[in-house]
Design brief:
Blueprint lengths: L2 H4 E9 L4 E3 L1 H10 L10 E3 L3 H20 L2 E2 L6 E4 L3 H24 L2 H12 L11 H6 L2 E8 L12 H41 L9 H16 L5 H12 L6 H6 L1 H18 L11
């Protein structure tokens, strides 16, 4: 099954007001007073107090996390692969989060714009320059929430007036890029399996280590999501999912805490699954 039959490309763009800028005059003054070269550093001036933008940034961070969890990498740009099986769910989530964000921008920031300007002036003192701040109406235009979807390119999509040889070269290049995108998508799913499995091995090989219920619950969440995310229909990933689903994901965290033999068997099973994924695994520095 090819990517364009089971997925679309999705692009999430969240824009916000500028929160900092390089202060050229302060930079020049600092460099001059310290007899430093022009490349020695730059003074970055914070335009707003943390409280002005922080709630919006936290909302954006959560939206970005949801976006990444439901999608897979697509080559080297901001677009990501969204399985068509999750398209409706993804769009519903984004439709809910867009008005939440718009209400937050308006009530917390734009409606209190004069207040935040005053707070910025208090914070920056002699560094405050009114010319660096837009009007409230202009500031409101700096915030946007856009979701754009498009089909995954297909090798037969070329309808240009070129020689058959040129079109064949373009098709070959596209097919190569699609193959690379499929490889990256598969490796992302392997990583999503690898990380919690390594945590299971780390915690359960130590008979005295304490762990939260999430050690097992995280595995359950992943195997629940994998059928729709495995757009390349990779057999190795599916086999690992089924082994987790019918084994590790069914374990009771309390029983693992009470039984050293159960812990040992679970750790061994996790290690075996990791071994099956080894050809595509990436090292995780903090897992040891």
């Amino acid at each position: 099954m090819s990517l364009h039959e089971k997925s679309v490309l999705i692009d999430l763009t969240l824009t916000s007001i500028t929160t900092s800028r390089i202060d050229q005059s302060v930079t020049a003054d600092v460099l001059h007073r310290n007899a430093a070269g022009k490349d020695a550093g730059r003074w970055v001036s914070k335009l707003w107090p943390k409280e002005a933008i922080d709630p919006i940034q936290k909302h954006d961070a959560k939206t970005g996390t949801l976006h990444r969890e439901m999608t897979l990498p697509w080559l080297d740009n901001s677009k990501r692969i969204l399985p068509t099986a999750r398209f409706d769910e993804y769009m519903r989530i984004m439709r809910d989060r867009r008005p939440e964000r718009e209400d937050l921008v308006k009530s917390h920031f734009i409606d209190r714009y004069a207040h935040w300007l005053h707070e910025a002036a208090t914070m920056r003192q002699g560094l405050f320059r009114p010319s660096e701040y837009p009007s409230a109406a202009a500031a409101a235009q700096r915030f946007s929430f856009r979701v754009e979807a498009e089909p995954v390119p297909h090798g037969n999509d070329f309808r240009v007036k070129l020689s058959q040889s040129d079109i064949a070269d373009m098709q070959a290049t596209l097919e190569s890029r699609l193959s690379e995108a499929a490889r990256i998508a598969r490796n992302e799913l392997v990583y999503r399996l690898q990380e919690p499995l390594l945590r299971v091995v780390e915690r359960l090989t130590d008979p005295d280590a304490k762990f939260q219920d999430s050690l097992i619950h995280n595995l359950r969440s992943i195997v629940d999501a994998l059928p729709s995310m495995n757009i390349t229909e990779d057999a190795t990933i599916e086999d690992a999912r089924l082994r987790i689903l019918h084994g590790l994901a069914k374990l009771d965290p309390d029983s693992l805490r009470e039984s050293r033999s159960d812990r040992s068997r679970a750790a061994a099973e996790a290690n075996q699954i990791l071994a099956s994924l080894a050809p595509w695994m990436n090292p995780i520095a903090d897992a040891a």
